[in-house]
User: Which sequence fits this backbone?
């Protein structure tokens, strides 16, 4: 299961500050992996509210079912996450495993089990041995700390090659609030949602409804705009926990002017975490930003961007450092959205290649080829229909993806 | 551009008989490739009718536009195909290249240029040097033969590793009619249509309307039920030419009892040609048949099958000979169609793995693992909703796919 680290792996995990009302701990539970952290617990202050978005898969796992019910009252007191086994397609035993885990956490923290969020990531279709988790809850509660972000980010990893975290601050009524997020990928990454778990904790004082609206809106331009392999997980979960400890007056409406700085900080944090997921996409050697302009709507632009970002022929061309823009034409053509072939304008690395449905006279491939040899690839595609636009991020499709996925279970 | 031959390549090209009213010739035109056949011409008897289906891509190439117009009156006298350059995204020059090619053929065969079908396959976005083609038309018309199928099948290849042909016969009113088809893949293979060119010639006496209905109906269960990489070409074209030379009374209705044997033969021939395309899919080492049962409709079943067949995670697992059926659960979940997770039943190689949303108690992976080590992989997925069913074919996703596509143009 050891794979080479992503070339985008940062030199070190970012320094993440405490968030008032959040304490964390992690341990080795041996759910599947041996000799590494694979279980994390977060405890939240009373009055913490939560919002979130989860996979739309019709074969979602037992933990997703549990969390969909738990989120309905907007209250949260704890989050427990294991890596190695996704507890998906495990029937009643799987549902029981979730409930027993929530019970153990609720007992240890003296809270309602319906305020405990339970996530699992890893292999599908194997029974989760929840005893390995429940046996560790007592120990985890005794080691809770307000600074254990890096271990938490490590404990939720599967084929990720580096732990992912980010921090932003924002001002609400002159009070500085903190947002800290952690996430994991790194295959089965496609909207809606990416295969991933991502948790953002903040001390801002928000209503549950505002929390839900903020995270749903932020997801669309971040985790729902990335793709690694077009596959959608049964476990995708993005949660925003707001502990309400920052001391400003509560925010009750998403349109209030006083929440805009926070909203920007959250959106920016989510894009940062989503980019980290793509940059650690299985086998990724290049990070690709696809900007689509001129579509019928923003949604149409995003679908065209994802058609390009999911195309194996585009992704292998980029892996081969080949400026094969004809495959971009192909991917626009198959997106199922309106595009004017005879106005299509494509640029790579800022260099215009086509206009009005043809290569630009005298197009010189050399500077584009030089751009293709870099780590960060950008392309802009104007489909010539309207004003819709979107940006989508993906990575290249390499031998590393095959190596990782042809031997994932063995 | 040399890649290892597919392990499914037949020992030899099948023996294909003449079809009354069809003559063929091929040559090296040097459109892009040197030292190989890359141009074919077929001449059809007067009164030949044609039906066909073409790519739905909104960035379809100039030849597809030409053929869409040419097919409207149902008449055909010739087909000319070049490999190496797809003449796509080439603007007015591309349209002119098609017309000049059709003109040259029409002059040489003394027919209407609107009865000349023109197809191109290869790289997108480069101008086609039609002079290389038109200069060869005279020579091609002087070497027309009724048995030159293998050369024709070779001349239309791009990254294909073997030429593809098939034959069937059928009875209409006691008269034996012949159907011969050739096709090429072998990347950018996804419905609607597969990236491919396929031509079927028959001496049956059919109306143009019957010909169109037969080919559209046959495509749905053959070329529209295969996928290699989920990418859809700008050039996909499937045409059925009926020369009317067999001597039976004309068939004017697709529901006539006397055409049913022909219909079955055509459907079977199309499935054969489609399978050959998948078996020569770029990098293919395994041929995968996915049967979906219990869906809301046959169309829903096909979409679920394609979701499985297009999943990079399913395809890499099969490449790794890993019976990772959890990824099939995932692919069902993301298909966007109704499925009952708690009734989902999956079998691989005829061995039942899950029932009622859980692994079967005592499931033994050994015989499934043995099946995974074979060349031909079968799976059956019952989604537990209704009576819709479909069969879809694909291949595995291997290092070979990346090798071929990361250096296609170089």
Assistant:
């Amino acid at each position: 299961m050891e794979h080479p680290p992503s070339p985008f792996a940062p030199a070190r995990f970012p320094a993440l500050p405490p968030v008032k009302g959040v304490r964390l701990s992690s341990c080795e539970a041996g759910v599947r992996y041996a000799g590494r952290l694979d279980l994390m617990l977060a405890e939240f202050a009373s009055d913490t509210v939560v919002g979130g978005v989860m996979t739309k898969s019709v074969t979602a796992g037992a933990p997703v079912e549990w969390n969909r019910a738990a989120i309905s009252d907007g209250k949260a007191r704890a989050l427990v996450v294991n890596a190695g086994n996704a507890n998906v397609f495990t029937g009643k035993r799987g549902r029981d495993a979730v409930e027993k885990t929530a019970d153990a956490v609720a007992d240890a923290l003296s809270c309602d089990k319906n305020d405990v969020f339970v996530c699992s990531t890893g292999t599908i279709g194997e029974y989760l041995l929840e005893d390995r988790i429940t046996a560790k809850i007592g120990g985890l509660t005794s080691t809770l700390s307000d600074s254990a972000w890096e271990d938490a980010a490590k404990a939720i990893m599967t084929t990720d090659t580096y732990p992912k975290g980010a921090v932003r601050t924002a001002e609400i009524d002159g009070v500085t609030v903190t947002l800290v997020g952690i996430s994991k990928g790194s295959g089965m990454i496609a909207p809606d949602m990416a295969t991933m778990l991502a948790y953002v904790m903040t001390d801002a004082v928000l209503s549950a409804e505002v929390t839900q609206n903020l995270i749903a809106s932020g997801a669309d331009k971040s985790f729902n705009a990335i793709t690694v392999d077009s596959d959608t997980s049964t476990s995708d979960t993005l949660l925003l926990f707001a502990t309400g400890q920052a001391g400003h007056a509560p925010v009750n409406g998403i349109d209030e002017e006083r929440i805009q700085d926070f909203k920007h900080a959250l959106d920016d944090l989510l894009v940062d975490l989503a980019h980290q997921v793509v940059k650690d996409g299985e086998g990724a050697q290049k990070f690709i930003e696809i900007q689509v302009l001129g579509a019928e709507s923003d949604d149409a632009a995003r679908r065209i961007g994802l058609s390009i970002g999911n195309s194996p022929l585009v992704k292998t061309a980029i892996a081969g450092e080949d400026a094969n823009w004809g495959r971009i034409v192909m991917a626009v053509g198959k997106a199922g959205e309106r595009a004017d072939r005879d106005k299509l304008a494509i640029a790579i690395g800022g260099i215009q290649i086509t206009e009005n449905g043809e290569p630009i006279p005298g197009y010189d491939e050399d500077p584009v080829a030089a751009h293709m040899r870099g780590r960060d690839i950008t392309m802009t595609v104007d489909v010539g229909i309207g004003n819709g636009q979107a940006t989508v991020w993906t990575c290249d499709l390499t031998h590393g993806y095959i190596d990782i996925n042809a031997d994932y279970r063995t």
